[in-house]
Write a structure and sequence with these properties.
58% of the residues lie in helices and 12% in strands. It is of the alpha/beta class. Strands 2-1-3-4-5 form a five-stranded parallel sheet, with helices on both faces.
Length: 200
């Protein structure tokens, strides 16, 4: 199993940050503690596993920050007595594992090591998905509809008929859509749409 050299800890609770840092120091894991994602963004690490306290929107914001930096770190979320819905949402937002705090040092270390292995499989794909979704978010509703039509293999005329607009208007939306996505060709736009999971 790959060794963890760096743990990026994000938690606004000072006492808990200190406790986790102490627990992991006995296993020779270097912990970089941060109070929040803004503080992390000011000192972006080169590598590591993120252990983040699961507060509302925290994982989503962290994933957005990683997309902005173009780097993906495996995310392990934790909270005290989380419900099933909260854990599922954390995974949907991008966490690859979840811990219920408090947790023993051995369990924490084992979970982090497993996360590194799992991250090697899903990390790059997740980063591509997040970056693609960030691009898709720039589109207007109409541009998304045109992208959906393009991804379905429809011509400008058929897209126009479906949306009750002229083929020329479709062309304009299509050009704007390609520009906003940073796509040189229609095939690039379709790939971005697939990576963002808005078409299959």
């Amino acid at each position: 199993m790959e060794r963890i050299s760096n743990l990026i800890l994000i938690d606004s609770d000072t006492r808990r940050r200190a406790t986790i840092s102490h627990v992991l120091s006995t296993d020779n894991i270097h912990v970089e503690p941060f109070e929040n994602i803004s503080e992390l963004a000011g000192a972006w690490p080169r590598s590591g596993v993120v252990l983040i306290h699961d507060q509302p929107g925290a994982i989503h914001d962290l994933v957005e920050a990683m997309a902005h930096h173009g780097e993906w770190f495996p995310i392990v979320a934790f909270d005290e007595q989380p419900g099933t819905t909260k854990i599922v949402q954390a995974v949907l937002d991008g966490a690859i594992d979840y811990l219920v705090w408090p947790v023993s040092g051995d369990e924490l270390s084992a979970t982090l090591r497993c996360s590194i292995e799992r991250a090697a499989e899903v990390g790059n794909a997740k980063l591509r998905e997040v970056m693609a979704r960030t691009r898709i978010d720039r589109l207007t509703r109409r541009e998304r509809e045109v992208l959906s039509g393009v991804a379905s293999g429809l011509s400008n005329r058929l897209i126009g008929e479906k949306l009750s607009i002229s083929p020329r208007t479709v062309e304009i939306h299509r050009a704007n859509m390609l520009n906003k996505l940073g796509a040189n060709h229609t095939s690039d736009a379709i790939r971005i749409a697939i990576e963002a999971s808005i078409v299959s």
